Structures
1.
Amino acid sequence: MTHSHIVITRARIIMLARTWAGTPYHHQASAKGIGTDCLGLVRGVWRELYGSEPALVPGYSRDWAEASGRETLYEAARKHFTEIPKAEATGGDVLLFRWRSGAVAKHVGILLGRPRLIHAFEGVPVTEIKMTPWWWRHAVAAFRFPGVIDPPATDY
């Protein structure tokens, strides 16, 4: 799927992500204001940017990563986003997290700038958090939405 006709800016990604704030957590969902999980947030922003999702997401259990042992989320991110060095991630980029060394990466969020992340977490509505050293240590990969035209900036 080509996105060459769509103008994607970091400011637009961040603005769209923030419109999801307060959406209740709901496993496997991706409906702004109704319910979403971490992947659903990224999927929802993708739909708002491009009109449709690049692939159908199969159903998944809460323990999908532990049960499968496969880097399913990482593989999908590599297929649909542009992987970038984690140190270059900035506002509008997607971070992938691994809870502990050797575990499968199973959490995603969207950077709002180097100091902040927006994400959905079980039991908590979509919220912005400070990217503390703990979060940076658990971030294992960074990805850019396809077609982002403006250069990285340090603060939005």
2.
Amino acid sequence: MKGHMKQRSKGSWTIWVDVGRDPETGKRKQQTLTVRGTKRDAERELRELLHSLEAGSYIKPSRITLGQWLEQWCQSYVAIHCSARTAESYQSEVRRHLTPILGRILLPQLQPQHLENYYSQALIKGRVDGKGGLSARTVQYHHRILSEALSHAVKMGFLARNVAEAVAPPRAERKNLANLAPENVPNFLEAAREAPYYELFYTALWTGMRLGELLGLRWCDVDLDMASISVVQALYKRCGVCKMIEPKSSRSRRRIALSPSLALLLRQYKADQQAQRILLGEPLADSGLVFSHIDGKPLDPGVVSHTFAKVLRKAGLPHIRFHDLRHSHATLLLKAGIHPKIVSERLGHANIGITLDTYSHVLPGLQERAAERFDEMLEPGVIAEDVSKMLAKGPSLDSVGR
């Protein structure tokens, strides 16, 4: 297989490669490609094309741009295989950030340098409002979106390789998770008693459930006799419309054991709710939402979060997000010595590694306690005997000389 190139203008080269014969006509076929850059860039592209032809991995260049592919990928793949929230997030980042900067590049001509340039510029001036750069964590998220989209393009035959795999995204600094300190819990609950959604806030702190999971919880999912909750759906609000969706992942479908205090609280809450519904002439159904308006309609997640912030201010506590009640639940359990596997199951994490990576830094002294426990597990007599022998032996001449 042969190929050659020719300079068309300054910084522009055309490459011709022989791609074999047409099976119908028997005529030889050539593929042309325009390369922008130096002669060395054109030579490198020619070598790569010839190598891919010899290896049988050559893919005919397409005129589709990266922006067109990202939009097609979001509509045809992401919308089907990802949750509604993830799909909406991907589409938002693609349309707000990726397409305006990278969208015009032809998909086969996308190079690692394009992505590196985008990441560096995004950190400096990537915000849509023009007021500075994006966080390293956000740029990491963009890298993940691009990598997944390009990986799918490889599977579909549009690309021979995923150029995102050759690029390292910026490293994000680990931030300390905000949480409700144990000593502040009584003040928080006292302030919450006089505000709406007290039972909701209590359940969030005592179970670590996500807000959407709490707002999608039905009475048929709560077993007060066995003191447990089954998480099988979540409420999601989009464009002002609330709907029930599948949990975030397969592990998010889980059973959570209730503490005695929470079981008693929910039992009394259900009795009060039944009394209210009887007055309205609509008895409470098993399919009814646990946390809802008095008429059974779902609560607005934004209103719940706003009320939560007001309760914190009233209690004189530092501001945290509603989601940080989930972090508080996990942190308290881990500090109490509960096995991370149990904590992971209660939170619905995909695997225990996520739990350990997220919360290990809030457990100072774990290494020290592990070393102490190792001694405790062995027979005290054996350890004492070994220590006595070492002391009796005394320092060696070598160690004294040092």
3.
Amino acid sequence: MTVRLDKWLWAARFFKTRAKAKNAIESGKVDVNRTRPKPSRDVVIGDFLSIRQGYDDLVIEVIDVSDKRGGAAQAQRLYRETENSRLAREEESLKRRMAGNFVISKTRPSKKGRRMIHQFKDKKNSE
């Protein structure tokens, strides 16, 4: 059985739609065996996929192919994340949590904060 890469990514629940999977492949966020594929490339058992989603970089091995989208438990049977990938992802997650407020602000900046941002940007652009 052969399955297109965009359809497999959708079935494995990495993307909500095939169109989003296709856009991710075309924009270079998905690699197959360290090469940049086309969305129509067939997925084969044993392929290694590198997928960038948000802050996370996943490296997975294809264990099974399917063109049907099922539940999360069924989707997880299609692939296995490599140990190095899992450890690196957990380490990066810990670093983001340790950075705390420096990464994500829950509120908009105040007027004073906006002035400081503009001053910083102006200073940086003048250098």
4.
Amino acid sequence: MGIVKEFREFALKGNVLDLAVGVIIGGAFGKIINSMINDVIMPVVSIPGKADFSNMYFPLNEKAKAGIEAAQAALPSGQVLALSEARTHGPVFAYGSFITETLNFLILAFCVFIMIKLFNSARKRFEAEKVAPPPAGPSKEETLLTEIRDLLARKA
């Protein structure tokens, strides 16, 4: 019965509930950021060079190269064979996926940095608006020592 009681106390602590809420909100925020990256930022980034980073790769052996070239020949001019299809022909070095994931990470890190910066500035503003508590009066010990000092000064 001791383990069940300990687990109940652990699970009902405020820290565990705060952590659960943080994880849920973090997951939702991650989806928002991923949508912003994939649906808003990456299309804009790819406009100047008309580059689709996700389909940048090169074959790692002759079998893959031959299969990709044959599949590419069947596509309309200017269209690139998708990475998923290229992988069916053999191993490929998908550096475009790495570039995309690196950009996603940098954008996500920047968004988190901006959020933390905004949060910290708001917290500083709220703390500045708080009225400072009045200074505490002397403690009982200080009052007693002051009385003793005054008594000794009168005797002297």
